[in-house]
Amino acid sequence: MRYAVIVLALMLAGCTTVVPVKQQFPVAPTILLERCPDLMVVDDGKNSLRDMLKVVIQNYALYYQCAEKTHGWQDWYQEQRRIFNK
Amino acid sequence: MWLLHFLPDAFLVFVVNAILIVGIVATVVTFFFLKYLVRLMPALNAQVTLMQVVSVVILLFGVYFKGGQVTEQAWRQRVAEVEAQLEEARKESAKVNTVVETKVVTKTKVIKEKADALIEYVDREVIREAIREADCRIPQEVIDVHNEAARMNQVIEQQRKGAK
Fold it and tell me: How far is CA A80 from the centre of its chain?
């Protein structure tokens, strides 16, 4: 009886199956991982209309650059999803 | 049968087939031909049942291991297929990264250039004069520059149309 139990236990090992496949999460492009910078402010003493206008222009540029990164994330996600589901 | 992962395919097949063949031969011999041997060697008569039991046990192990080995081979093949698919996905994913990165870098560069051009325009004399002449009101030139900065993304749209 004792031996039968040992043999049965060994036979049970046949039921285990290990599948050694591991999928890695894709790495995003470095530029998309950069944080969006803070908006610029008008420095003290530079209170002319021209100085303010320059800051406004730079801030618009920062916004659109950050928007492009967001679009990049969206494109990246759509493409990676397509590849994953293929 | 996780232990089987450590054995090479050819060795595994050889061992399993050997056990199965030995089991089949031993079972056939002990059940159908042992009686002829017993006539020649009567001393074997006492061991007949034991030999039959042992041969059946070997056959059972052989059948079991053969089943395990076939399943194992099927799994290994499936794993190889999935690994190949993953490798292909990895390559495609890297390609997508390059495309997305290039697109974002190009667009942010275009935006930076447009912003620099607008700032350079603001520094020009024409804007200084316009501000001076406008008293407290915001001159139209300043509003134009502001609106152009707000529509900075249109540069990319124009480039896209130009590319088509």
Answer: 11
A37 φψ region: left (φ > 0), alpha (ψ -120 to 50), beta (else): beta
Residue A66 covered by a domain: yes
What are the DSSP calls for A34-73, one per residue?
Answer: SPPPPPP-PPTT--SHHHHHHHHHHHHHHHHHHHHHHHHH
Please state the domain count of chain A: 1
The answer to whether residue A5 sits within a structural domain is: no
Orientation of helix A49-85 relative to helix B140-150, angle to 10°: 10
- Per-residue pLDDT reduced to its tens digit, B63-93: 999 998 888 889 888 999 999 999 999 999 9
Instruction: Kindly state whether residue A11 falls inside one of the protein's structural domains.
Output: no
Q: Residue B89 is encoded by which pair of tokens?
A: 């996905």
| A31: containing domain | 26-85
- What would the two tokens of residue B49 be? 């049942």
Q: Is residue A3 part of a domain?
A: no
Positive or negative torsion for Cα B36, B42, B46, B47: negative
Q: Chain B residues with CB inside 8 Å of A54's CB?
A: 119, 122
Report how far residue B163's alpha carbon sits from residue A56's, in angstroms, rounded to the nearest whole number.
29
The whole-model pTM stands at 0.65
ipTM of the complex: 0.73
- A61, B153: Cβ pair inside 8 Å? no
A 63-82 → B contacts, CB under 8 A:
64-65, 67-69, 71-72, 75-76, 79-80
Query: Minimal CA–CA distance to A30: which of B109, B156, B102, B92?
Result: B102
In chain B, the residue whose alpha carbon lies closest to the alpha carbon of A28 is: B97
